[in-house]
User: What shape does this take?
Amino acid sequence: MNLKAKLLNGFQNKYEVGFNEERIAERLSQLASIGLTEEGGSNRIAYTKEERAAKEMVKKWIKEILLEVYEDEAGNVFGRLNGKDTTLPAVLVGSHVDTVPNGGHFDGTLGVLTALEVVQTWTEEAFIPDRNLEIVIFSDEEGVRFDGGLTGSRVMMGEADAGSLREDKDEDGVTFAEALRADGLDIDLLDKAVRNPKEIHAFVELHIEQGKVLERQDCPVGIVTGIAGPVNLWVQFNGEAGHAGNTPMGQRLDALAASSEFMTELEKMPGRFSETAVATVGKIDVYPGGSNVIPGRVELIVDVRDIYLESRDSLLATIEELALKIAERRGLQVVLDRKLRVDPVLIQDGMKEIVKDAVESSGFQPVLLPSGAAHDAMIMGRHVPTAMIFVRSQDGISHNPKEWTTLDDIMAGCKVLSETLKQLVAG
Ligand SMILES: [Zn+2]
Assistant: This one.
């Protein structure tokens, strides 16, 4: 069964919010056919022919509703619905169409296609906004190819430029400059993609939640309060390797036992700093790694996130103190290194209120929740008023062919997005 049939098959028109469910199911299905994997997932890596084909497909749909389509030097695609006063700063709405390898069919694409559905419905109803509304597809959100990500939005807001990106290489040794050229773009012109934030009134991104909060609350949509910024803390415990049989328990410098204590204590900490803080050890390497050898060295990475910069950094400092304290008591050495540091972004109260009003007037309970994952909205939120709407994910699964959001929930998302945008495009 193709994606369209599967979506429509489960459709109950639970919320009766209007919009064209068949059209959006058809478009999701057509996009899913680009880069379809054997496991039924999506493979549209940034600046490849698959991402390009997806952009061209959406461009065609945007043109069909007679919007002006253009593309910037970073490959970001825009479709503009002119407002009554075209000199006013525009509202931007959208997401991305690239995926992780063998990813899902909703991450990113849903934000683009709900924006298109809303604008198409407006044009059918002959609704003309006071100011311009631009649908946007950002290039290379996922960052799997060049270890970066959020590339289109970063370039557009002046956070990345040709100088910093040019020599980045993918796994095959292809540079960022070469990848752009293969996509019909020119790195020497990249910096022309920068936009003046004053031209942008607001940015809105609708995205799948990729978590289970909305499912637990039994709600199709949620209001994002902030986007957590991660810090990766690399921790190395150095003890002493020794024979597991010949070294008495009291004479050991066991790096893994120290790490275990560290991780157990670590798990209790985030809640003391804020409700939204999290800390995770997802990678650990034990050396020399033999069943009869006392571990002499352990390397692990702690991923620390929060939507509040201050509490995230206090948590991080406390985790570092914990590692030092455990190492000292056990007579081990510890090496700490803060890597990858992205500042979180809080959604402004005024923007949260607009989404909350949209949610309530659409007949849904307002559920507020943070985003643990990064999105283009995180970059945009540093420069212009930004809102983010989450739509329920089934079982919280994402970056996986099993990623699923029901068509009923998608229609609820369309309604809330439309109401949010109507507030923002009002002059
Ligand atoms: Zn995404």
